[in-house]
Amino acid sequence: MTVPVDGERPESGTPLLDVRDLVVHHGQLRALDAISLRVFPGEVYAIIGANGAGKSTLLRTIAGLHHPTTGSVLFDGKDVTRLRPERRATQGIAMVPEGRRLFGSLSVEENLQVGATYARQGSWTIERVYQMFDWMRERRSQPTAQLSGGEQQTLAIGRALVANPRVLLLDELSLGLAPVVVQRIYGMLPQILATGLTVLLVEQDVSQALGVASHIHCLLEGRTTLQGRPADVTADLVEAAYFGLAGTAPASPPGERSEP
Amino acid sequence: MAWVNAIIQGVLTGGLYALFACGLSLMFGVMKVVNLAHGDLAVVAGYVAIGVIAVTHLPVLWSFLIVVPVMALLGYVLQRTIIQSALDRSVLTTLIVTFGLSVVIENGLLQFFTANSRAIGTGLALVTGSFKLGSQIQIGYLLVVIFAVAVVVLLGLQYFLSASKYGRLIRAVADDREAAQLAGADYRHVFGIAAALAFGTVALAGLAYGMYSQLQPTTGTDTILLFAFAAVVIGGLGSLWGTLLGGVVLGVAQQIGAQISISDEVLAGYIVFLAVLVLRPQGLTTRRAQS
Questions:
Q1: Does residue B90 sit at the A interface (CB-CB below 8 Å)?
Q2: Strand bridging mode A17-26 / A70-75
């Protein structure tokens, strides 16, 4: 189920997502402090970190739900920092928000239909989602409240997929789900990636993130404490970066690319 | 027999009250806006119809085909401008803004049309005619038609909300605005469409009342808005068919009150309204208070 990390990141060419020196405040609190990251096409880029590290804020800012104080978000080379979330969505940024956020008074199928309303051209259709998750077709007219947590999460992913995004933002897929269910959901990633999608995900569960990611990026209290390929980082480095132990974690491990 | 008559008249009046209420309920259900100018907009629709008829000499029902779309368009524009900018501040601001709108409309109507009451004169037998049920019960055609229109409007709204693309988006946005944005939906536009629907029903309410009774600049707040509120609360906030049930309960209560003593008509309606508020604050149709 692990996505093979083959060699170097494709660092030449335009990154699909280019986040530059992002600073985001929640009131007085500086939630993100000069975060930069570049996600290249076809990557699975994982942002890890403890509660309150700013992971969700980062994802929500990329999706347009928060406004940065300074810094910019470039999508496929174009500055989208000032665009509303719905405009970013129609350009190809889809997000599966934390806590699923399904439309509670809509049926399973209607949730997918809303996701497909402003879809880009592409290979994902409601029919294809049904083929991938066969239980969904039988239960398409049920309200979402009757689904289990894992089924709801799957539906939330399906709702994002039918928009035919270029980049999929996944916020804490594992939250509140049993480990076996989390395994199954992450197990679907290769199938999703095979359709040419790029994934930027946020995860508290480090082993899960290390398992699927081609690049990891650790946040601590709004700052970058570590980034690199899973193969290049040791468990000790990750632990130090994750918890901020002894404050000795290097900003980037040896052999890491130079920041722009 | 007088009591049976009271109940029949009350049920039929309930259709009118449902027309008053469904737009208010829709706007609250979708954007959490309590539109205090709701009744005044109904009166505006009535006056516009009177104006259109006077100027164009169109047949009355044809003039409605102009007034309803115009009011729906006005709803979209008002929602996208002042109501949305109030919403961006807080839901409470919308109360103040729509109250202000109500004051402006009422005084504007007073200025241009004076305080005289006007009716939408149709000259149709439909409006003045009635038929007899047995020897003592007399039923006006107009109330029957209004009741039928209310049912058709509610059926239409329900069909639109459940089966159309924008209906689905309206429900999605009402559920979770952010999630709808992430799916590419511009919730402001969706709100505008919901407001257009609500204003269309408001226009019908004003036209119906203008034929059934008489319109004054103050009718919007002292009758239409209050009865709409009562019907919405009795039926259950945010429930479309609840507005019909609420309207019918209100109408029957008023007619029974009037049967006891003519001066108790309005009072009886409000007693039921208060009783529901105390005993079943979520209304008769909704199971739990909506979050």
A1: no
A2: antiparallel
